[in-house]
Protein backbone atom coordinates (compact mmCIF):
# COMPACT_ATOMS: atom_id res chain seq x y z
CA UNK A 1 0.00 0.00 0.00
CA UNK A 2 1.23 3.51 -0.79
CA UNK A 3 0.48 6.39 1.57
CA UNK A 4 0.68 9.66 -0.37
CA UNK A 5 1.57 12.88 1.43
CA UNK A 6 -0.75 14.94 -0.76
CA UNK A 7 2.18 17.23 -1.62
CA UNK A 8 2.76 16.57 -5.33
CA UNK A 9 6.52 17.12 -5.48
CA UNK A 10 7.16 15.16 -2.29
CA UNK A 11 5.15 12.22 -3.59
CA UNK A 12 7.10 12.29 -6.85
CA UNK A 13 10.35 12.26 -4.88
CA UNK A 14 9.18 9.17 -2.97
CA UNK A 15 7.70 7.30 -5.96
CA UNK A 16 4.07 8.34 -5.24
CA UNK A 17 4.45 8.31 -1.43
CA UNK A 18 5.74 5.98 1.25
CA UNK A 19 5.03 2.30 0.89
CA UNK A 20 4.08 -0.13 3.60
CA UNK A 21 6.89 -2.56 4.32
CA UNK A 22 9.45 0.21 3.83
CA UNK A 23 11.77 1.82 6.41
CA UNK A 24 12.30 5.56 5.77
CA UNK A 25 15.00 7.57 7.55
CA UNK A 26 14.52 11.37 7.65
CA UNK A 27 17.24 13.60 9.09
CA UNK A 28 17.99 17.29 9.38
CA UNK A 29 18.84 20.08 11.77
CA UNK A 30 16.41 21.28 14.43
CA UNK A 31 13.39 23.15 13.00
CA UNK A 32 14.14 21.89 9.48
CA UNK A 33 10.64 20.42 9.13
CA UNK A 34 11.18 16.74 9.95
CA UNK A 35 8.12 16.48 12.18
CA UNK A 36 5.92 18.30 9.67
CA UNK A 37 7.02 15.91 6.94
CA UNK A 38 6.11 12.91 9.10
CA UNK A 39 2.77 14.46 10.05
CA UNK A 40 1.90 14.90 6.37
CA UNK A 41 1.86 11.10 6.14
CA UNK A 42 0.07 10.75 9.47
CA UNK A 43 -2.66 13.01 8.10
CA UNK A 44 -2.84 10.94 4.92
CA UNK A 45 -3.11 7.66 6.83
CA UNK A 46 -5.85 9.00 9.11
CA UNK A 47 -7.80 10.40 6.17
CA UNK A 48 -7.64 6.95 4.56
CA UNK A 49 -9.12 5.41 7.70
CA UNK A 50 -5.85 3.75 8.77
CA UNK A 51 -4.29 3.57 12.22
CA UNK A 52 -1.00 5.18 13.25
CA UNK A 53 1.49 4.56 16.07
CA UNK A 54 3.47 7.69 16.99
CA UNK A 55 6.44 7.36 19.37
CA UNK A 56 7.39 10.81 20.61
CA UNK A 57 10.60 11.27 22.62
CA UNK A 58 10.73 15.03 22.14
CA UNK A 59 9.91 17.46 24.95
CA UNK A 60 7.14 19.03 22.83
CA UNK A 61 3.98 17.20 21.79
CA UNK A 62 3.03 16.74 18.10
CA UNK A 63 -0.69 16.95 18.91
CA UNK A 64 -1.14 20.70 18.37
CA UNK A 65 0.72 20.58 15.04
CA UNK A 66 -1.29 17.55 13.93
CA UNK A 67 -4.56 19.29 14.81
CA UNK A 68 -3.38 22.27 12.75
CA UNK A 69 -2.56 20.12 9.72
CA UNK A 70 -5.60 17.84 9.81
CA UNK A 71 -8.17 20.45 10.80
CA UNK A 72 -9.65 18.33 13.59
CA UNK A 73 -9.37 18.18 17.36
CA UNK A 74 -7.28 15.35 18.76
CA UNK A 75 -10.31 13.77 20.48
CA UNK A 76 -11.85 13.29 17.03
CA UNK A 77 -8.93 11.14 15.81
CA UNK A 78 -7.54 9.57 18.99
CA UNK A 79 -9.19 6.21 18.20
CA UNK A 80 -6.94 5.99 15.13
CA UNK A 81 -3.64 7.05 16.70
CA UNK A 82 -1.60 5.49 19.50
CA UNK A 83 0.75 8.03 21.08
CA UNK A 84 3.67 6.57 23.08
CA UNK A 85 6.02 8.75 25.15
CA UNK A 86 9.31 7.13 26.23
CA UNK A 87 11.20 9.04 28.92
CA UNK A 88 14.50 7.14 28.64
CA UNK A 89 16.44 5.21 26.00
CA UNK A 90 15.76 1.96 27.86
CA UNK A 91 12.04 2.73 27.87
CA UNK A 92 12.19 3.48 24.14
CA UNK A 93 13.79 0.06 23.62
CA UNK A 94 11.01 -1.63 25.57
CA UNK A 95 8.37 0.15 23.50
CA UNK A 96 10.03 -0.81 20.22
CA UNK A 97 10.36 -4.42 21.39
CA UNK A 98 6.65 -4.54 22.27
CA UNK A 99 5.35 -2.61 19.25
CA UNK A 100 3.53 -5.64 17.86
CA UNK A 101 1.25 -5.46 20.91
CA UNK A 102 0.07 -2.02 19.76
CA UNK A 103 -0.51 -3.04 16.15
CA UNK A 104 -4.20 -3.35 15.37
CA UNK A 105 -6.18 -3.98 12.21
CA UNK A 106 -5.51 -1.22 9.70
CA UNK A 107 -2.30 -0.03 11.43
CA UNK A 108 -0.26 1.15 8.45
CA UNK A 109 2.21 3.72 9.80
CA UNK A 110 4.72 3.96 12.65
CA UNK A 111 6.59 7.22 13.30
CA UNK A 112 9.45 7.72 15.76
CA UNK A 113 10.17 11.36 16.58
CA UNK A 114 13.08 11.47 17.31
CA UNK A 115 14.92 8.13 17.32
CA UNK A 116 18.24 9.39 18.70
CA UNK A 117 17.19 12.10 21.17
CA UNK A 118 17.38 9.77 24.18
CA UNK A 119 20.36 7.89 22.73
CA UNK A 120 22.81 10.78 22.33
CA UNK A 121 23.29 11.67 26.02
CA UNK A 122 24.34 8.10 26.81
CA UNK A 123 27.18 8.33 24.28
CA UNK A 124 28.93 10.90 26.46
CA UNK A 125 29.81 8.11 28.90
CA UNK A 126 32.45 5.85 27.34
CA UNK A 127 31.44 2.98 29.61
CA UNK A 128 27.88 2.92 28.25
CA UNK A 129 28.42 4.12 24.67
CA UNK A 130 29.13 0.68 23.18
CA UNK A 131 26.07 -0.85 24.82
CA UNK A 132 23.94 2.10 23.63
CA UNK A 133 25.26 1.71 20.08
CA UNK A 134 24.39 -1.99 20.11
CA UNK A 135 20.95 -1.26 21.59
CA UNK A 136 20.18 1.33 18.92
CA UNK A 137 21.11 -1.18 16.23
CA UNK A 138 18.74 -3.69 17.88
CA UNK A 139 15.89 -1.16 17.95
CA UNK A 140 16.33 -0.21 14.31
CA UNK A 141 16.50 -3.87 13.31
CA UNK A 142 13.24 -4.54 15.16
CA UNK A 143 11.59 -1.61 13.40
CA UNK A 144 12.75 -2.84 10.01
CA UNK A 145 11.43 -6.29 10.83
CA UNK A 146 8.08 -4.83 11.91
CA UNK A 147 7.81 -2.95 8.62
CA UNK A 148 8.42 -6.07 6.57
CA UNK A 149 6.50 -8.61 8.63
CA UNK A 150 3.44 -6.50 9.43
CA UNK A 151 3.36 -4.57 6.12
CA UNK A 152 3.65 -1.20 7.88
CA UNK A 153 5.39 1.98 6.74
CA UNK A 154 8.00 3.09 9.29
CA UNK A 155 9.31 6.67 9.38
CA UNK A 156 12.21 7.38 11.70
CA UNK A 157 13.24 10.99 12.33
CA UNK A 158 16.85 11.62 13.26
CA UNK A 159 19.10 14.41 14.51
CA UNK A 160 22.39 15.46 12.96
CA UNK A 161 25.94 16.03 14.18
CA UNK A 162 28.91 17.88 12.73
CA UNK A 163 31.11 15.96 10.33
CA UNK A 164 34.62 15.76 11.67
CA UNK A 165 36.32 16.07 8.27
CA UNK A 166 34.34 19.01 6.87
CA UNK A 167 33.72 22.64 7.75
CA UNK A 168 30.06 23.20 8.53
CA UNK A 169 28.95 19.83 7.18
CA UNK A 170 26.55 17.56 9.05
CA UNK A 171 25.63 13.91 9.01
CA UNK A 172 22.92 11.83 10.70
CA UNK A 173 23.52 10.60 14.23
CA UNK A 174 24.48 6.90 14.07
CA UNK A 175 24.79 7.15 10.31
CA UNK A 176 26.33 3.68 9.94
CA UNK A 177 23.39 1.97 11.63
CA UNK A 178 20.73 3.97 9.81
CA UNK A 179 22.40 3.62 6.42
CA UNK A 180 22.47 -0.16 6.84
CA UNK A 181 18.79 -0.58 7.69
CA UNK A 182 17.10 2.19 5.67
CA UNK A 183 15.26 1.70 2.39
CA UNK A 184 14.80 5.45 1.86
CA UNK A 185 17.03 8.19 3.25
CA UNK A 186 15.72 11.77 3.19
CA UNK A 187 17.66 14.89 4.17
CA UNK A 188 15.89 18.19 4.92
CA UNK A 189 17.79 21.49 4.95
CA UNK A 190 16.69 25.08 5.44
CA UNK A 191 17.44 27.45 2.57
CA UNK A 192 18.02 31.19 2.78
CA UNK A 193 14.55 32.08 1.54
CA UNK A 194 12.07 32.20 4.42
CA UNK A 195 10.26 28.89 4.82
CA UNK A 196 12.12 27.23 1.93
CA UNK A 197 13.36 23.68 2.53
CA UNK A 198 15.59 21.55 0.34
CA UNK A 199 14.38 17.95 0.52
CA UNK A 200 16.88 15.43 -0.86
CA UNK A 201 16.45 11.71 -1.43
CA UNK A 202 19.89 10.27 -0.78
CA UNK A 203 18.76 6.66 -1.21
CA UNK A 204 17.69 5.00 -3.35
CA UNK A 205 19.12 6.86 -6.32
CA UNK A 206 16.75 8.04 -9.02
CA UNK A 207 16.10 10.77 -11.58
CA UNK A 208 14.29 13.20 -9.25
CA UNK A 209 16.56 13.38 -6.22
CA UNK A 210 15.90 16.84 -4.75
CA UNK A 211 13.04 19.31 -4.49
CA UNK A 212 12.30 22.62 -2.79
CA UNK A 213 9.21 22.86 -0.59
CA UNK A 214 7.90 25.61 1.66
CA UNK A 215 7.10 25.13 5.32
CA UNK A 216 3.77 26.78 6.16
CA UNK A 217 1.21 26.68 8.96
CA UNK A 218 -0.76 24.16 6.90
CA UNK A 219 2.22 21.88 6.26
CA UNK A 220 4.50 21.64 3.26
CA UNK A 221 3.59 23.43 0.04
CA UNK A 222 5.11 23.62 -3.41
CA UNK A 223 4.64 27.41 -3.33
CA UNK A 224 5.67 29.99 -0.76
CA UNK A 225 3.20 32.31 0.92
CA UNK A 226 3.86 35.21 -1.47
CA UNK A 227 3.26 33.04 -4.55
CA UNK A 228 -0.05 31.89 -3.09
CA UNK A 229 -1.34 35.45 -2.70
- Written as H for each helix and E for each strand, in order along the chain, the element string is EHEEHEHHEHHEHHEEEHEEEEH
Biggest β-sheet: strands ordered side by side in the sheet: 5-4-6-7-3-10-11-12-13
Major sheet, described briefly?
A: 9 strands, mixed
Mean pLDDT: 93
CATH class designation: Alpha Beta
Which percent range fits the helix content? Answer: 25-40%
Shape: globular
The total number of structural domains is 1
Q: What does the oligomeric state look like here?
A: single chain
Radius of gyration: 17 Å
* C-alpha end-to-end distance: 36 Å
Q: What's the CATH H-level superfamily name?
A: P-loop containing nucleotide triphosphate hydrolases
The helix count comes to: 10
Strand content: 25-35%
CATH names the topology as Rossmann fold
Number of strands: 13
Q: What is the architecture at the second tier of CATH?
A: 3-Layer(aba) Sandwich
Key structural traits:
229 residues; alpha/beta; Rossmann fold; nine-stranded mixed beta sheet; 13 strands; globular
Task: Give a short synopsis of this structure.
The chain is α/β, with parallel strands linked by helices. It is built from ten helices and 13 strands.
